[in-house]
Every structure is written in C-alpha cells, then in structure tokens.
C-alpha cells in the first residue's frame, strides 16, 4: 500500500534523453531486464545520477509487436497528410448486403470515417435496399 501511495504522490516519467542513455546490465530471473538510466541533465555527471530500472520482458516484447503491427497496418501515403488510414484489400466481386433505408442512411453518413478504417462501402443508385462492400481492412484477409 505504501508503494502505491508513493507512486501516486510522486509519479515518475522517463524522458527520451533518459531512454537514450539506457544501459542494459543483465537479465534478472528470466523475467526482467535490469538497466541503468542516467537521470542527470548534464551527461558528464554520471555519479549519483543513475536509476536502476527493471523492464518486464513480456510487456516490452508485446509493446514491440504492437508497434510493428501498427506500422504495418497503416498506409504511408496518408501519414504525410496527417491522417492515418488502415490498408485495405479489394473484394472482387464486392460483397452485397441488404439494408433498410435507415441503415443505408446511417452508413452513408459515416462512410468516410469507415474508409479510414479500411472499409469501403458503395451505394448503388439503382438499388436503395442494398450496399456493396468494396474493400475490407487487410487484417481481415
């Protein structure tokens, strides 16, 4: 309980500079990576400025895999515009879905947002009770 209270009262944040100074010492109990992080602003002051940090290997590995998945899932061309758009795979032929008038109207209102999620919906003018799914997120395939 005392540790929880201390963590709430004195939260600790690692800066990019601190992470860059990280020095791996060893593996501990096949579960953690022991590291030293320099907490001093002046790089020449190494004494009394190091913090011993234990990194949970499993959590770190999950984070690396998540970052890779996110990088691989989004198209590069949209990032330059400040937008993220999931990569999509074209369905040939498009998937036909019967919908009510209200459902069609709702999907029409949010179809641009759905496109950013990799879901392309087509709205045939000759059949108001149907929509076509032209693309789905690549991770669905």
From TrEMBL:
Q: Which residues form the MutL C-terminal dimerisation domain?
A: 24-137
| Organism superkingdom | Eukaryota
Spell out the SMART domains in the cross-references: MutL_C
Task: Kindly list the GO CC terms recorded for this protein.
Answer: mismatch repair complex
Q: Which GO terms describe its biological process?
A: mismatch repair
Q: From the UniProt record, which GO molecular function terms apply?
A: ATP binding; ATP hydrolysis activity; ATP-dependent DNA damage sensor activity
What's a Pfam family in this record? MutL_C
User: What PANTHER family does this protein's entry cite?
Assistant: DNA MISMATCH REPAIR PROTEIN MLH, PMS, MUTL (PTHR10073), DNA MISMATCH REPAIR PROTEIN MLH3 (PTHR10073:SF47)
Protein name per Swiss-Prot or TrEMBL? MutL C-terminal dimerisation domain-containing protein
């Amino acid at each position: 309980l005392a540790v929880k209270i201390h963590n709430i009262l004195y939260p600790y944040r690692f800066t990019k500079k601190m992470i860059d100074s990280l020095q791996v010492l060893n593996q501990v109990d096949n579960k953690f990576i022991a590291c030293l992080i320099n907490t001093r602003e002046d790089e020449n002051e190494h004494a009394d400025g190091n913090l011993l940090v234990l990194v949970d290997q499993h959590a770190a590995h999950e984070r690396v895999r998540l970052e890779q998945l996110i990088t691989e899932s989004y198209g590069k061309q949209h990032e330059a515009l400040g937008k993220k758009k999931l990569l999509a795979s074209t369905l040939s032929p498009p998937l036909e879905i019967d919908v009510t008038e209200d459902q069609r109207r709702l999907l029409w209102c949010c179809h641009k947002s759905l496109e950013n999620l990799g879901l392309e919906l087509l709205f045939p003018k000759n059949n108001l009770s149907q929509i076509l799914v032209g693309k789905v997120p690549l991770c669905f395939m």
